[in-house]
Amino acid sequence: MELGKVVGTVVSTVKDEKLTGNKLLIVNLITADNKPTKNHVVAVDTVGAGVNEIVICVRGSSARMAKNMDTVPTDTSIVAIVDTLEVQGEILYQKYEQ
Fold first, then answer.
1. Domain at 63, CATH number
2. How does pLDDT run across 9-38, given as a tens digit for each residue?
3. Distance between CA atoms of 82 and 20, rounded to whole angstroms?
4. What is the pLDDT of residues 62-95, one digit of tens each?
5. d(C-alpha 54, C-alpha 71), whole Å
6. Which domain holds residue 44?
7. Which are the contacts of 26, defined by CB distance < 8 A and separation ≥ 6?
């Protein structure tokens, strides 16, 4: 699993029919200390994520293990939206302000 920040969306009107109905998002992979990397992926969203949210992505065969994804041609899926990112006792990201 990898952490990433959703930075955009992809719209495609012509695509494999098994992708129809799936939202495609651009995710910038981040480090454990919430720093952006130069690595971006296009991921199928399985949880209703949005721009600027921190998410957990899975790649490879794990990407098709999410619900209803077994026949979707993807190698990256978003499987969780992060509420809090805490590293060594320090909160680096909080989705909801306290």
1. 2.40.50.220
2. 999 988 888 788 889 999 999 998 899 999
3. 26
4. 666 566 767 777 789 999 999 999 999 998 899 8
5. 26
6. 2-94
7. 6, 7, 8, 9, 10, 40, 41, 42, 43
The first and second tokens of residue 73, run together, are 């041609």
Which pLDDT does position 37 carry in this prediction?
Answer: 94
**Which tokens go with 15?**
């695509």
Query: Residue 22, Cα to own-chain centre: how many angstroms?
Result: 13
| In contact, 27 and 78? CB cutoff 8 Å | yes
- Count up the domains in the chain and report the number: 1
Report the candidate in 86, 66, 83 with the shortest Cα–Cα distance to residue 75.
66
> Beta 54-59 vs 76-81: how paired, if at all?
antiparallel
**Claim: this prediction has a pTM higher than 0.85:** yes
Among 22, 42, 35, CA closest to 93: 35
pLDDT, tens digit, for every residue of 44-58? 999 999 999 999 999
